[in-house]
């Protein structure tokens, strides 16, 4: 029992300690800038100790948390993504003295804690607690929309209600799994003895449905465009990147710790086809860049699920590369949107506002074009390699229907990604009124860093990605990178 209490991944301990310090500092005296600085210092410390832990795991392996190269990698991605998102929020929230906003970075940190708890979970209990902490944090963050205020409240209410329904489904599946196995270990239940075979199937389907909602896979996708459009741009980035990485990491962990059910292939294959086609077709109709990125995020979940469904020698590399490519490219788009926004001008959330950007602000336009190329799977961005490796996993398993869906979805995606670049290259109809440019060195540095990551990852994938791959499997039947 002592082993259960002692073993704790260091990032969870560091983030929890930082949150308590932030709470104590807020009680002492409110300061938005200090809260943001404390959050960033905490995340940097967490990133430094991301591969460490306290104590030792019990010999029987029955613990609340697990730590290996897979959890270390995905936790590092989550912490790095939150750092980038806090940098996007620094100027607006840290220098707005009209309202106390200490809660803004605090909610980001709580959401990060929930995401990390999901990544490191080896038990249903910490996973569900992390899931709820992340969901409540996103609900609070969505309300920090100043223009218009009601948009943020509407986004928060939609997410709160639908997230509650999905959590209830997931919790009911967890209860069924416990009834079948008598254990809360984070793995698909397997019927033993005279237990009806339908019970573990129902439990697995309910758990999978709860995860698919958080991933916004079709048909559980309807909330994502509305929530991301109603939330501030940094919060939309948090929903699109951090929550997706956490859930997908847990999904790989859940079905990688035991034999996959036979019915899983058919269910996930249908979800993949609907998700890729649905996300891309929805994106074609969007005039809001935020909603377009939400629909794009839905499609990218479908691409990732192809690699998830095809275990083998190529699976580990495909998943690892795609997570890095998706995180860097999506954060780059939202960072460019934040840098483009002006207090007395456009906020960058409408595609039409980007007209003629190559003429007025070529640096931002070039960075945005590179990120869109990467998301579309066009060289030299890292997204090209990511889609290639996902396609390779489908070829290895001869998933012809899924490969055709990937190709058709990618062709559709080319239209709406390149359309944004076309808008930026179109000369404005009338000379635009010059807007006062506010110095934002942190955003410029962030855009440059993300651009370098996207380019270096695309040009030198072996050096940029392969040292970060999860460990090889130690047990037969587990996907690459899934070890205990």
TrEMBL record:
Superkingdom of the organism of origin: Bacteria
Q: Which residues cross the membrane?
A: 6-25, 32-50, 70-90, 102-121, 127-144, 156-178, 198-223, 235-256, 262-282, 289-309, 321-342, 363-388, 400-418, 443-462
Q: What is its EC number?
A: 7.1.1.-
Q: Where in the cell is it found?
A: Cell membrane; Endomembrane system; Membrane
The way this protein sits in the membrane is described as: Multi-pass membrane protein
Its cellular-component GO annotations read: endomembrane system; plasma membrane
Q: Which keywords does this Swiss-Prot/TrEMBL entry list?
A: Cell membrane, Membrane, NAD, Quinone, Translocase, Transmembrane, Transmembrane helix, Transport, Ubiquinone
Q: Which InterPro entries match?
A: NADH-Q_OxRdtase_suN/2 (IPR010096), ND/Mrp_TM (IPR001750)
Which biological process, per GO, is one annotated for this protein?
A: ATP synthesis coupled electron transport
Q: Name the major location.
A: membrane
Which GO molecular function terms does the record list?
NADH dehydrogenase (quinone) (non-electrogenic) activity; NADH dehydrogenase (ubiquinone) activity; quinone binding
The chemistry this enzyme catalyses reads: a quinone + NADH + 5 H(+)(in) = a quinol + NAD(+) + 4 H(+)(out)
Q: Which residues form the NADH:quinone oxidoreductase/Mrp antiporter transmembrane domain?
A: 122-412
Transmembrane in keyword set: yes
Q: How does it assemble?
A: NDH-1 is composed of 14 different subunits. Subunits NuoA, H, J, K, L, M, N constitute the membrane sector of the complex.
Q: What does the similarity note say?
A: Belongs to the complex I subunit 2 family.
Cited function: NDH-1 shuttles electrons from NADH, via FMN and iron-sulfur (Fe-S) centers, to quinones in the respiratory chain. The immediate electron acceptor for the enzyme in this species is believed to be ubiquinone. Couples the redox reaction to proton translocation (for every two electrons transferred, four hydrogen ions are translocated across the cytoplasmic membrane), and thus conserves the redox energy in a proton gradient.
Q: What is the protein name given in its UniProt record?
A: NADH-quinone oxidoreductase subunit N
| Organism this protein belongs to | Komagataeibacter swingsii
Q: What is the lineage of its organism?
A: Bacteria, Pseudomonadati, Pseudomonadota, Alphaproteobacteria, Acetobacterales
């Amino acid at each position: 029992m002592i082993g259960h209490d002692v073993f704790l991944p260091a990032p969870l301990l560091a983030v929890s300690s930082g949150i308590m310090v932030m709470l104590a500092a807020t009680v002492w005296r409110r300061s938005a800038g200090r809260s943001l600085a404390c959050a960033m210092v905490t995340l940097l410390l967490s990133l430094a100790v991301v591969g460490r832990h306290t104590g030792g795991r019990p010999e029987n392996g029955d613990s609340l948390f697990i730590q290996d190269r897979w959890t270390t990698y995905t936790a590092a991605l989550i912490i790095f993504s939150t750092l980038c998102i806090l940098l996007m929020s620094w100027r607006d929230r840290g220098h707005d003295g009209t309202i106390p906003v200490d809660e803004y970075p605090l909610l980001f940190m709580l959401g990060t804690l929930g995401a990390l708890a999901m990544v490191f979970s080896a038990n249903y209990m910490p996973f569900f607690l992390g899931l709820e902490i992340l969901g409540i944090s996103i609900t609070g963050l969505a309300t920090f929309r100043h223009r218009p205020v009601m948009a943020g409240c509407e986004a928060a209410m939609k997410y709160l209600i639908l997230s509650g329904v999905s959590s209830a489904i997931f919790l009911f599946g967890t209860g069924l799994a416990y009834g079948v196995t008598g254990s809360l270990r984070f793995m698909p239940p397997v019927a033993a003895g005279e237990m009806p075979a339908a019970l573990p199937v129902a439990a697995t389907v309910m758990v999978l449905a709860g995860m698919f909602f958080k991933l916004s896979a079709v048909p559980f996708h309807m909330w994502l465009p509305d929530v991301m459009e109603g939330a501030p741009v940094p919060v939309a980035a948090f929903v699109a990147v951090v929550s997706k990485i956490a859930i997908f990491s847990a999904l790989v962990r859940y079905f990688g710790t035991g034999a996959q059910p036979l019915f899983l292939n058919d269910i996930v294959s249908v979800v993949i086809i609907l998700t890729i086609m649905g996300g891309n077709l929805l994106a074609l109709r969007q005039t809001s860049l935020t909603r377009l990125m939400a629909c794009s995020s839905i499609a990218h979940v479908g691409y990732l699920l192809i690699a998830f469904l095809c275990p083998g020698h190529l699976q580990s590399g495909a998943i690892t590369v795609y997570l890095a490519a998706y995180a860097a490219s999506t954060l780059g788009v939202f960072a460019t949107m934040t840098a483009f926004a002006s207090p007395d001008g456009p906020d960058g959330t409408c595609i039409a506002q980007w007209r003629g950007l190559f003429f007025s602000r070529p640096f931002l336009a070039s960075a945005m074009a590179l990120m869109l190329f990467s998301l579309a799977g066009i060289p030299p961005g890292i997204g090209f390699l990511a889609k290639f490796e996902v396609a390779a996993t489908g070829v290895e398993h001869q998933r012809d229907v899924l490969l055709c869906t990937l190709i058709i979805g990618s062709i559709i995606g080319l239209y709406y990604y390149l359309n944004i670049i076309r808008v930026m290259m179109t000369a404005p109809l009338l000379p635009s009124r010059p807007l006062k440019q506010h110095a934002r060195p942190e955003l410029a540095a962030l855009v440059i860093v993300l651009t370098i990551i996207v380019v270096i990852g695309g040009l030198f994938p072996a050096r940029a990605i392969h040292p970060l791959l999860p460990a090889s499997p130690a047990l037969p039947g587990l996907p690459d990178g899934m070890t205990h």
